[in-house]
Structure formats: C-alpha cells, structure tokens
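Need tokens for this chain, all 435 residues.
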Amino acid sequence: MRTAAGPRSTLGPVTLWKDFLRALTEPLGDHRPPLSTARRPWVRAVPYALVLLMVGSLLPTGIVTLIQFYGVDPSLATALAVVQAGALPLALTRPLTAWQLVAPSVLVGAVATHGAAADQPWPWPTTTLLGYLFLMVLLAVRERGRTLLAVWVVTFLGCSLSWTVFNEDFDGSSVLATALSGVVLLLGWSLRGRGEAKRLLAAQEQISETERARRTLLEERARIARELHDVVAHHMSVITVQADSAPYRLEGLPPAAVEEFGQIAAAARGSLAEMRRLLGVLRAAESTADKAPQPGLDDLPKLLATVGQAGVRAELAVGDGVSALGPVPEAVGLSAYRIVQEALANVVRHAPGATAEVGITAADGALTLTVRNDPPPGRARAVETSGGTGQGLVGMRERVRLLAGTLDTGPTADGGYRVTAVLPLDGTSPGEKTA
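Here are the structure tokens for all 435 residues:
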C-alpha cells in the first residue's frame, strides 16, 4: 500500500502542473469571433466595432500616458502600447494567444514604470487595466473554464508578487485588477455556458422535431395499411369463395381444374391469415379493431353534413364523368374520402366559418379531387379539433403516393387554400409506372 501511495503523491503535483500549463497553452478549437452566429449583420459587426474603438482610443492614450506620466522611453512605450492594444483584434478569434502576448507586456510595463510617478497607479496604468479587462471579456466568451481559472491565477500571482516585492509602492491597483478580472471572467463564463445551453437545446429541439415528423409519417403509414387491410381482405375473401364454389357452380370440370381451384382457395385463405397477423403487428397496443366498413365516395354527403355542424359550409360538386364511371376501386374510394376528410378538417382547424367547395371529376383514367375554401370571415381564430383521422398533409401525401397519384396544395389568390389530388383508377403502382 505504501508503494502504491508513493507514486501517486509524487505524480500528483506534476500532473496538476502539466494540466495548469496545458490550460494556459492549449486554446479551444473554436476560432469564431463572438456573435458570429447572429442572424442580423449589424449584430455580427458589434465585436469588430468595439475592438476598433478600443484600439483607436487605447493605442494613442497608452503611448502618451507611459511617456508623459511615467517617463518611459518613447520607443519602449510605443512597443508596449502596440502590443497591449494591437492584441485586441487578435483576441476576436484567438483570445488565449492574445493574452499570451499581453501578459508579458504587462510585466515589462510594471518594471519600466516602477518608481516613475508616485501619484500614478502602479503596477496597472489605467490604459493597461482597461485593455486587460476588455481582453478578459473576449477570453471569457471563447475559452473553457479551466483556462479562465488558470489565467486568473496567473493574474492573481502577478499582482501578489508586485505587492510582495514592491510593497512600498503598492497603491491597490493590483487588488482592483485581480477583483475586476475575476468578475469579468466569471460573468463571461456564465454567459458562455448559457449560450451553449441554448444552442444545445435548439439542436435537441431540431432533432426532436425530425424524430416527431418521422414518427408521424410511420404512424400514418401504419394507419393507412390497417385501413386498406379491409379492402384487400374483402377481395381475398371473394377469391376464396369463388375458388371453393367453382367445382359446384361449373359442371364438367376436369379433376386437374378442381385441384387447381382448391389450391387457389387454400392460398387465398393462407394470405388472409398472414394479413391478419400483419394487422396485429401494425395495430397499436391501445387501439381496437374497427368493426365499421371503410367509407368511400358515397359517404361524402354525410361527411359534408358533419363538417357543416362544425361551422364550415361545404358544397359537393360531382362531375358527369364520375357518374358514368361506375363503382371506383375500393382503395381509390377510401383514399379519396380520407383526403377530403383531412382537407375539410384543416378548414375547420385553420379557417373556421369559411365556405368550402369539394369537386370530384373523372378523366383520362384518373379521379381528380379538389377541395377549396375561402378565407375565414373577419378575424376568426384557428381552433384544434379531432375531426380528422390522419396527420393532415402527411396523410394526404402518403395516400396519394400509395396510388401513384399527385397532390398539389397551396394558398389561393383571395387568401383561401386549395388541395388538389389526382388518383389513377387503373391500380398501377409507382414502380410499374416508372418502368
């Protein structure tokens, strides 16, 4: 145990010293100037304007102060003022490097001005202190906390050294520099932490919004699949019944045909069983099976009457081509009903009291739906309602994509909104159309 404790006690101070030096020499990789992520250009220009103002004021006054009030040689005074003020533009992108230049110049200036003027602050002339504190601001908003602590420790040790060695000339400016630099570093570090927290929160909100949109899309696709199960199951049931009854309905069938019809019926029943298992996977744990038949175009008048009870007067216009078309495929009829339902639900949500028009036409092997609403009267406030069963435009796009159709939405010239969906009637899938 003693052997293990010895190396730790020996390496502890060495490790601390290395970490301390590393904090003073290794800057953070972020070299962006302060406020660089602001949206407004004038906000991004504020740090540059402040630095220009500080350099323009501290450079000439620093030279004059060191020469006239401290009696420093003009060349040395110019060099010190240029280093201390000229490092501020560098501090916009590399504040730790700027501090590494300024800190030795402060020490050299303290030695050069010692004993020069008893009525002037020492070892921190006013111009030096102002420039150093401004540098602390730029350092605090860009570097990590351990670097700020190390910088303050060096400042404190330098001020303590000046008080110890030159106690007779000590006037309290070192205490002021130590206290103000610590306060500036602490406030700047707090503001930087708050800004980082806000950025992380914004990034997390963006990720959450993306995940929410993805989850909404998946839920809508599962809901559409559950609805279409009834449509497909109906067709499979018809196939099963026809295949099972074919040997009794058709006389004189050869044994091979009877066996073939039996295999078709068995395959259809197997497909129905697989679809039921698939539906159990798609159905959420808290949802229940829908016993009602799936709606179609014939149910649109009832839908418009229900929307009218919510304060939206809707009119239905059916083209002659639809009447001559006859029954449409069940998947198309269901999708058409849901698209109209979601479009009218959006009118109730976002334009309560408006008038809506629903148009249905058939041409060139496709069913065209148009839902258009006028702007709401007066300043009607948008409301939330559960009248729709899907996810708005997301559900419409998925249903249209399922049938290889097209969807066009957007505002109208008079301030209303329009939804136009074209649904092919031939049952061609997107892949088949592409091919």
